[in-house]
Each structure stands twice: as C-alpha cells, then as structure tokens.
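User: Can you recover a sequence for this backbone? Please restate the input before giving your answer.

Assistant: Of course. Working from this structure:
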C-alpha cells in the first residue's frame, strides 16, 4: 500500500518525507504521514487527495505546516 500511495503522490509532486504509524500484526489499518514540498498549491493537493480517495486510500486529515 505504501508504494501505491507514493506512486499516486509522485505523479503530482515529490515527497519530502514519509512516516508510517500503527503497523502491527493484527491491525486492520495503519496511518501514513506524507510531507509534501511547500510549493504544492491547494489545487494540486486536492487532485492528490481525490486520486488517493478514488484508490480507496482515505485521507483523514491535512495539516498545513506553513499556516500560523
């Protein structure tokens, strides 16, 4: 799943960082945090999220690290 998510994201932009959480045997799901470059605008982010959701990868939260 990580490779599939990364492939979707890198169609639009590079990935600055990636972190996976809650990866344990018997866990139904896990969380993956991707950090994208600061030059990703809201339209490009929307396209990335739409594509991930279409492939059944749920985007639960987006945090803008540039926001005050």
């Amino acid at each position: 799943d990580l490779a599939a998510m990364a492939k979707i994201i890198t169609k639009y932009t590079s990935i600055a960082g990636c972190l996976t959480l809650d990866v344990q045997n018997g866990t139904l799901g896990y969380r993956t945090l991707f950090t994208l470059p600061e030059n990703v605008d809201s339209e490009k982010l929307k396209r990335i999220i739409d594509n991930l959701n279409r492939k059944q990868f749920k985007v639960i939260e987006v945090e803008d690290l540039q926001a005050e």
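That completes the design. Residues 33 and 61 are 10 Å apart (CA to CA).
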